[in-house]
Amino acid sequence: MGPLLSAGGFFVRSGSLHSLEHALAAICTKAGFPNGEEFKWSPARGSWMRDNLTLEARTQFFVEVLTELVKHDAKTIVVVADTRRTPRRYVSTESFVTKLLMERVEIRACKDQSTCLMVFDRPGGARPEENKFLGRIIDTIQAGTEYVQMKSFAMAPVSTDSRHVRCLQAADLITASTTAVIAGQSTHTQEVWALIKSMFISNWYGDIGGTGCKIYGDRCEYHNLYHWLLGDTGWAGRVALPWHAWPYYKGTNIFSPR
Q: Can you give 60-104 as a three-state secondary structure string?
């Protein structure tokens, strides 16, 4: 694999949002987080979490957060792209993975006959960069994509600082840990990954790959990973996984055949 870039998060019913946010805050208080200190899958150097919540205690904290999401019937989508494979018509891999994420959000919301309000973590950088990012999102909603018309968004997505919203921190946990598992990381992952897998949305064949968890590469080069990492036994109802002609046929660390 080349460098990976991901976008993701989770759905929760509007009537459950207040309860979930307060439940996550209570878990953080119990763990000893100072006020205003956010949790992340990979906390920065010098942060309280990096120095004070380690090893089994950190894993247990992640499990408690994700278990609360399961109790609130949260559903998850994560899109991961190999940055070497970004289609040339996109200005960046960031805009590409965001488009893939929004397509899946729209399809899921339409299936549920629901209206969606999307809340993003505020992009890094100065305010002009944030405005450009949100502008691209609004353009996508208004114009749709070559595959999906965006009809389920109640209004333009909004962004806010994740330091003040525990649910956004949980979205970071889901997205970053999924990316870590795909990249081969094993620390903290067994129980955490089991909970995340239980929340991924699936298609009508019951497959998670390509729907709840999308790994974008070149001509099916990562599709067998849907079997090894997600437990999928088929692809689009036509191909049994693992498929001998695709990479990773023999396991997650064996790329051949090409």
A: HHHHHHHHHHHHCCCEEEEEEEEHHHCCCCCCCHHHHHHHHHHHH
Distance CA 122, CA 231 (A): 33
Backbone dihedral region for residue 125 (phi beyond 0: left; psi -120 to 50: alpha; all else: beta) = left
Quote the CA–CA distance of 130 and 50 in Å, as a whole number.
28
Six-digit token string for 204: 């009508």
Write the DSSP symbol of residue 188: T
Residue 237 has pLDDT above 90, yes or no: no
Provide the whole-model pTM: 0.92
As given in the structure block, the two tokens for residue 175 are 């997205």
Helix (H/G/I), strand (E/B), else coil: 7 = strand
pLDDT for 257 equals: 63
Rounded Cα distance between 252 and 179, Å, is: 14
Can you give the C-alpha Rg of the chain in angstroms? Answer: 18
Give dist(CA 231, CA 7) in Å, integer.
22
Crossing angle of the two packed helices 14-31 and 55-71, in degrees rounded to 10: 160
